[in-house]
Design a protein that fits this description.
single chain, mainly alpha, Arc Repressor Mutant, subunit A, two-stranded antiparallel sheet, 7% strand
C-alpha cells in the first residue's frame, strides 16, 4: 500500500525494516488483535495516523502475513507469530 511509507516511516535514516517485520517483532507468541497491535505501534513511535486507519492497515497486513504463513489466527481471534522449525 502506498500509505505505508507515511504511516510506518523509518525511525532513522536508511532503516530497512519493513512494516511487516515490525509487526511480527511486536506480535510475539502470546498473540494480539489488530487494534492492540496498532496501539502498540503508534505508542512505540513505529506508526503515525488516525487510529482507524492504522487498525485497518494492521488488519490487512495480518491477513497477508497469515496467507504467507508467518502469523496464525487463534480460535479467539488473536494473531500470533509462527515459529519456524530448524
Amino acid at each position: 500500500m502506498s500509505n505505508d511509507k507515511k504511516m510506518f516511516a523509518p525511525l532513522r535514516n536508511r532503516e530497512s525494516t519493513t512494516p511487516e517485520a515490525k509487526l511480527c517483532a511486536i506480535l510475539g507468541e502470546s498473540g494480539s488483535i489488530a487494534a492492540d497491535l496498532a496501539n502498540n505501534l503508534v505508542h512505540g513511535g513505529f506508526a503515525v495516523g488516525t487510529r482507524s486507519l492504522v487498525v485497518q492497515r494492521v488488519g490487512e497486513m495480518l491477513e497477508s502475513l497469515e496467507e504467507a504463513g508467518k502469523v496464525e489466527r487463534t480460535p479467539d481471534g488473536r494473531y500470533r507469530a509462527v515459529r519456524r522449525g530448524r
